[in-house]
Request: fold
Amino acid sequence: MHPAEHSEETPPPGPADAESESALLEGVRRGNVEAFGEIVRRYQRRALAISYRLLRHREDAEDLVQEAFLVALDKLDSFDLSRPFGPWFFRLLVNRGLNARRARDVRATDELPDLPAADQESPLRHAERAELRAQVAAAMDALSGRQRLIVQLHELEGFTGPEIAEMLEIAPPTVRWTLHMARKRLREALAPARESGTDG
Reply:
């Protein structure tokens, strides 16, 4: 599985973009509303995607993103403008999301949205797709909280190992090892489904 593509996303800032972002953040510190709006525009889409992966509930995810931006605004005076804003902000978002998930105890029934069936899909095919989704969900739920989050951030959101390490404040080798073990557990959990799929 390859990391998700993010063609709609603003690409990671290069040197010139980093200087531009630093200037924007300096403007935010001085109370420039337009500068803050531009920072939100750059990071909101990915923040919403990450928040949904964490909380699996759209309204909760939107609330988390809004809260994270306000907290970032409140803490910006202590932020080192020579550092990239993204990893700092996403670490803040992830930490608050993990706390919110623990506090709210999101129910399993909210965890996976129903996927629309293809037009005129046969009942058998629809049942098979539903069963596969359930098996994948069960396999993911069997992972530890850290394993599940790292798999989601890497495979679904396209973050690199070093980015995840900085967000979660863990060592890059820990991210690599966690991904390795999580993938192994997922392969083992989904092996019966793959085998039954080849029997027919």
